Amino acid sequence: MDERRIRVLIAKPGLDGHDRGAKVVAQALRDAGMEVIYTGLRRTPAQIVSAALQEDVQVIGLSSLSGAHTHLFPQVAELLAEKGRQDIILLGGGIIPEKDRKPLYEKGFHRIFTPGESTKEIVSFIQEQVACR
Amino acid sequence: MNTQEITAGILKHDEAALARGITLTENRSKGYLELLACLYPASSPAWIIGITGPPGGGKSTLTGKLVASLRTDNKRVGVIAIDPTSPFSGGAILGDRIRMMDLAGRAGVFIRSMASRGLLGGLSPALIDTIALMEAFGCGVVIIETVGVGQSEVDIAGVADTTLVVLMPGIGDEMQVLKAGLMEIGDIFVVNKADREGADELESLLHAMLSHNEEEKWVPPVLKTSAHQGKGLDRLLKILLKHCRYLGETGVGREKTKKRAELALKAHLETILKGRFIAPLVGTPAWREGIQSIVERKTASVEVARNLLAGEFNGR
Q1: Burial class of B295 by CB neighbour count within 10 A (0 to 12, 13 to 18, 19+)
Q2: With a CB-CB cutoff of 8 Å, which residues 262-291 of chain B face chain A?
Q3: Residue B45 scores a pLDDT above 70
Q4: Range 36-95 of B in CB contact (< 8 A) with A
């Protein structure tokens, strides 16, 4: 009996103090049957990647409301690449200006979600992406 | 990674291989049986410490601090943090790791979050097998942290060599403590968040409840800690190590190992039987008729169950 569940790591890199959004997303993913490892505030890229590997997640969701996306998001992508884990679906969310998204996609992010997009969207995206791997 | 690569990787202490191996095992995916067949005989038993107690007591913070101290001998430490799966969605929020993130990336510490995946009571086969993988990886200590609700704390005591029960003051009704079965399973009792009001009273109450059984060679000690403030942890470590020595020097350690093997075997048999006999019945015409018969008060559910199974056996 195969009992696969989608495992997602949600983290907030940097010094952000607001995690309501991240928690809302975590709940939505849980309600969609996923196992969500929520690692909380103020994480370094190294801690995030190390946790993601130990937990063998298929998805990493990074949340930033205060500009961490410019430096810390790419660092997570780089560390994952170093470990040969570009197979992990990398998502970003929070306050990420339009102009900053393309560089993130180029770095390896698969999708950036912003306020206003529904959690249903996020769930579908993840399910589709995992299904075709 | 294929099964051979995972096996080789785990024996070489490769974290990515262990992570992948645990996933394979937890999902009961193709290859996990070969993995265990190779790795179990190649592994040495770890000291298994179970940490349980009501939610909010500070177990995860305490676990995090303990891991740091247990690492001093250059031991590899494995942590399995279990959180409940939602019975409605099948998903889970695994949030114990938050309190241990300082350990993330630290050499020699492997933390894995596991969802209970629907097991309300009874030992999880996936947990039993994950412990074996961590032992093969080289973990000298495996800490299992679980919320003490319902049966789960009793089951952890069945798996663990040393069971720590973590309580905190202000839980209200002391009868809850007595009722819950916690008193019978702990080898060591901790009153965490001891800076809070009621800590001394809880400590006294626990002492009183535990000291009546003079026949036992090990009388469970009670101690106060404040994991967050780092207080009482040295003493806790000393007592833990004392229990570990006690297990080795008396026959108790060996008894627990045997008991664990029995529980593990039963757990696996139950799971396999459920899969083989119950799952195929659900939704069949006989099943639907049976449900209808129960709802219409024609047949008691136990009779329906026995008929379904008899039908299963006869049909084979």
Answers
A1: exposed
A2: 275, 279
A3: yes
A4: 85-86, 88-95
Contacts of A41 (CB under 8 A, 6+ apart): A12, A16, A17, A19
pLDDT at position A109 over 90: yes
The HSE-up count of residue B233 (CA atoms within 13 Å, CB side) is: 18
Q: Tell me what the mean pLDDT of segment B190-216 comes to.
A: 85
End-to-end CA distance of chain B: 39
State CA B295 to chain mean position distance.
37
The closest of A91, A13, A15 to A45, measured between CA atoms, is A13
Structure tokens that stand for B227 in this block: 């994991």
Q: How far is A94 from chain B (nearest CA, A)?
A: 20
3-class secondary structure, A29: helix
> Is B85 within 8 Å of B127 (Cβ atoms)?
no
- For A30, the closest chain B residue by CA position comes to B91
pTM above 0.80, yes or no: yes
Q: Cα B110 to chain center, whole Å?
A: 16
Q: Do A2 and B113 touch (CB under 8 A)?
A: no
Does B89 contact A32 at a Cβ distance shorter than 8 Å? Answer: yes
Cβ(A86)–Cβ(A36) below 8 Å: no
Q: Tell me the C-alpha distance between B118 and B87, whole Å.
A: 6
Task: State the DSSP string of B111-144.
Answer: EEEEE-TT-SSS--HHHHHHHHHHHHHTEEEEEE
Structure tokens at B314: 């006869």
Mean pLDDT taken over chain B: 88
pLDDT at A1: 44
Q: Helix (H, G, I), strand (E, B), or coil: what is residue A6? A: coil
When pLDDT is averaged across residues A10-31 and rounded to a whole number, the result is 92
